[in-house]
Amino acid sequence: MSKPSLPEWRTAAGLVPYPDAMQTMEERVAAIRRDEAPELVWLLQHPPLYTAGTSADDAELLDADRFPVFRTGRGGRFTYHGPGQRIAYVMLDLRRRDIDPRRYVRGLEAWVIAVLGEFDIRGERREGRVGIWVARGGIEEKIGAIGVRIRHGVSFHGVCINVRPDLSHFLGIVPCGIREHGVTSLAALGRDASLADLDRALARHFPAIFPEPVR
User: Fold this and answer.
1) From CA 131, how far away is CA 57, in angstroms rounded?
2) Residue 103 burial (CB count, 10 A)
3) What is the tens place of the pLDDT at every residue in 92-142?
4) To bridge 60 with a disulfide, which of 13, 79, 174, 179 should be the other Cys (CB 3.0-4.6 Å)?
């Protein structure tokens, strides 16, 4: 896979436990801030679990016993992670890149939309609804989630794209607090894409959205 020279790109084998991922991100963000490590885009999958962002409402956790639940410092509400999703944790030095938080989130959205376009899927933004949506037959379904945290100008957490997860696992929560819309995936939309296919698209489109900063 052809990858940008910066940041570093890493792909995890197997399923990464959520606490391990959080510890790795915390350590890397601190190292980036101290100029002791390069920026990082980390591609991985988690075992089935629910996460609660800083705006999570416990009433939206419909089945607390189904999967482990982790409270996390990212923005947003409840979401699901599990096999068949591609998670991209993005650790960038936004200070050096001169990117404010709003522009950064818009960049993540643009990245996911561009990647989906390679699979002939039209991903769209929706005012007041974070994430990337697909409209078909009068129904809107979420295909990509975005949750970020920024500490001392360095980003972490990132994006999640549904490639081929078990969509029934979303039934234990109200995803992102939105009851009136569902969730979908590349597989549910008839796209026979692998995680490796998606990873190549992620790497191809990243430099146009987040070009290497001028030193």
Assistant:
1) 18
2) 11
3) 999 999 999 999 999 999 999 999 999 999 999 988 777 899 998 888 999
4) 174
pTM for this model (two decimals): 0.92
| 80 Cβ contact list (under 8 Å, min separation 6) | 48, 49, 50, 51, 67, 165, 169, 170, 172, 173, 175
Are the C-beta atoms of 16 and 44 separated by less than 8 Å?
A: yes
Q: Which domains does the chain have, with CATH numbers?
A: 8-209 (3.30.930.10)
- Is 176 annotated as catalytic? yes
Q: Give 14-18 contacts, CB < 8 A, sequence gap 24+.
A: 14/45, 15/45, 15/46, 15/47, 15/83, 16/44, 16/45, 16/46, 17/46, 17/47, 18/46, 18/47, 18/49, 18/51, 18/68, 18/70, 18/81
Q: Let me know: does 12 contact 41? Beta carbons within 8 Å.
A: no
Q: What is the pLDDT of residues 143-158, one digit of tens each?
A: 999 989 999 999 999 9
60-66: long-range pairs with CB below 8 Å, 24+: 60/173, 60/174, 60/177, 61/172, 61/173, 62/171, 62/172, 62/173, 62/174, 63/171, 63/172, 63/173, 64/172, 66/169, 66/172
Are the beta carbons of 108 and 159 closer than 8 angstroms? Answer: yes
Residue of 44, 69, 148, 176 marked catalytic: 176
